[in-house]
Amino acid sequence: DFVPAAYRALAFVDTEVPLPGGQCMLAPRVEARLLQEALHGGRLAAGAVLSPGKGAGTLNLAGELTLEAGSTLVFDLGATSADFLSIGSGGSLTSNGASLRLVFGDGLGPEGSDPFWNSAQSWTLASGHPGKAMGGSWLIDNSAWAPQGGFHTWYSNDALMLGWQPAVPEPEAY
Question: Residues with Cβ < 8 Å from 34, sequence gap 6 or more?
Answer without folding.
Answer: 26
